[in-house]
Amino acid sequence: MKDIRLIENLKNTIISLDKGEMPEVSDLVLLLENYREPEIFGFARDLGREKALENYGNNVFIRGLIEVSNYCTKNCFYCGIRCGNKEAQRYRLDFEDIMNCCESGYNAGFRTFVMQGGEDPVFNDDFVCRTVAAIKNKYPDCAVTLSLGERSYSSYKLLKEAGADRYLLRHETATKEHYEKLHPKSSSFENRMECLYYLKELGYQTGAGFMVGSPWQTMENLANDLIFLKGFQPHMVGIGPFLPHSQTPFRDFPKGSAELTLFILSLVRIMLPKVLLPATTALGTREEGGRERGILHGANVIMPNLSPVEVRKKYMLYDNKLSSGAEASEGLEILRKSLEKIGYEIPVSRGDCLK
User: Fold this and answer.
1) What backbone phi and psi angles, to 5 degrees, belong to 206?
2) pLDDT tens for residues 26-63?
């Protein structure tokens, strides 16, 4: 028999998030451990969707994703483009490639371009600043988001001065011990966190985020992630299920749960009602229709791929990543229709965070 008191306590934990309060770690852990309870899962989903509609209406903002390079000096154990993967087919886009992506994206209705790549030394400050400035000069009504990993304060400052509006840098996990299990000793938890605070200080719309179901992750780790996000107050949060890549040390670990990912999306929307919250490609890869379900759980951003078709299969952070159909810029009409079916629309908009 279902414990009515437990259900009420779990609902009260969700309500406290809605009120702007932060529950104890133990209460969050209990909530996460019981996310499969239909009443709790549905309660979070409905409240998350309500908060998104209340703040952003039925708009889903699109970002044109340009995967600029799969060269990376980092060796993160979960990532398919890690420098230790000698089987990866490496590439990098040049200035003209990136500008061509922006042109096709602008004509299709994109008003945010996301330059994402590994930590590639060729993408130094001079090159990135020149590229960002050129995009902003040609498309002044557009936002430029960067996701190029850990850099110095001075580098972030130069990129901001060149015109970059936003920066995505997933914190991956707010628990130092867990972070060190996911990364080699050459990667520093303290440096990752310091970079996030640099970005906030410099005035970027800043994005953090993490994987759900990464190796050795506990419910307490996830509770700590929620607590970190509440304190950090990011403008964007990227959350997707862990998906293994066959050419990494984590190849044999199980995939993260789509259902738990959806539940956490709802909790983040309830806790940070004005945040920009993507329904990620990883979620769409994990489960057919996953991105649409993400929208119904409170997400309000989707990032179709603007990268040249010939390189998309080379930017594989995890196996079987979707890069066609509604995941691609060419499939924008497919995406538009799939969202219309669930009551949402895609505006021609930068889609800035309400903060």
Assistant:
1) -105, 135
2) 999 999 999 999 999 999 999 999 999 999 999 999 99
Whether the predicted model's global pTM rises above the 0.70 cut: yes
pLDDT at 2: 64
Distance CA 85, CA 73 (A): 11
What's the CA gap between 93 and 321, in Å, rounded? 20
Q: With CA atoms as reference, report the closest residue to 130 among 90, 169, 98.
A: 98
- Interatomic CA distance for residues 338 and 288, integer angstroms: 12
Give CA–CA dist 112/277, Å, rounded: 15
* CA nearest to 116, candidates 67, 48, 173, 47: 67
CA dist list (Å): 160 to 79, 94, 129, 201, 204: 27, 21, 9, 11, 7
Within the chain, residue ranges assigned H as helices are 4-18, 25-33, 38-56, 95-108, 125-138, 153-162, 176-182, 189-201, 219-232, 258-271, 281-286, 290-296, 309-312, 332-341
Burial of 39 (0-12, 13-18, 19+ CB in 10 A): middle
Domains with residue ranges and CATH for the chain: 4-341 (3.20.20.70)
